[in-house]
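batch job 7 of whatever, protein = Extracellular ligand-gated ion channel
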Amino acid sequence: MEAEVAEVLLSKNKSVFSENSHSEGNCELKSYSSGLKWVFLDYSSLWRTGLSWSIFFLLNIGVPVVSHFVYSCSDCDPSHQRPYDAIVQLSLSLFAALSFISLSSFARKYGLRRFLFLDKLGDESEKVRQGYTQQIHRSVKLLSAFVLPCFFADSVYKIWWFSSGGTQIPYLYNMYLSKVIVCILLMCSWLYRISICFLVCLLFRLTCYLQILRLEEFAQVFERESDVASILIEHLRIRRNLRVISHRFRVFILSTLILVTISQFVSLLVTTEPRSKINISTAGELALCSITLVTGLLICLRSAAKITHKAQSVTSLAAKWHACATIDSFDELDDETPTAQIASARAGYPVTSNWDSDTEEGDGDDALDNTNLVPIYAHTITYQKRQALVTYFEHNRAGITVYGFMLDRTWLHTIFAIQLSLTLWILNKTIGIS
């Protein structure tokens, strides 16, 4: 299964996900977008749709349910008992089901190219297209980086559990053949579920990064001659894209947040019972499942907070642009010699303030929010128009929202602190991390 998935992910020559229109943009983007068409996410025909749902029910529901009831092993020795298997299987299967249903809905409504905004990428600049190409490359690598370590750790546990269980573990006919088949099915089920979960999170990250590239490109309008109307139209287009992304993913993000929080609380309550048996062999999968769920949630929240921060940084950039232009216009009316900073700014070179003269970078690494003055090209725009534009930015803050709540860094820090506290508590109970 893993080899088949990798082959499809890295394919460059297959047709794009069933969509009538084709982008006239970068061909490499097309090839890598077609690589995201998994066997179990193909809706190009009726029988492939049936195959996708059949694999989903088999690996996400059938195998975990049978495994839980047949291999609960309550009579085994303490190291082979699985008292927390129900929580692990239920949490992971629910997360995978939520991800699969979301992907199915996206595929039927939009298609992959439209969903990733590839159909409109031809209207963007070459810099945006190249940056998006690099992120598609990186998304495939990140998917492997998140999936393979979790799959390897769970595979090691399952191989140890079946190989060292002996006759305690139920089997049919041939003990060795039965254990090998069941172990492979369980590993495929685990790989399938975590791959689906991380795939949706990384697709959300990918769509957010495209808007980040557009915002960075949009910020350059303040450094060249532009009229207010063109700036306003471009910002309205970006805000609309952010609203579209928020609308598509709001159910998934909110459901994931609720699911992960409930799973963490239940795991915490169960592991802190007086008679609970906590060690790496009995609760190792619980710790691994907890890490997987929290990682997927944080990928989504961090991507949402980053794009929200970038979008709101445009307001400070516009205010700085307005201030520089206003100061420059008053200096032109004054007979006094303009300062070196204003003269340099009028010449078109950004000026760095004294406290930003060193090479040390901030933790935000945000090019839109720095202490450099904006080059003055705004003398062709009246004060009233600049003030109206800044007022518009102040009262129309863009970003990722979930039913009206803006996902900014404050929300990210709060949720991260709660989830990390629960995760560290579980890890402390399972493998002794203090």
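notes: Strands lie at 401-402, 405-406.
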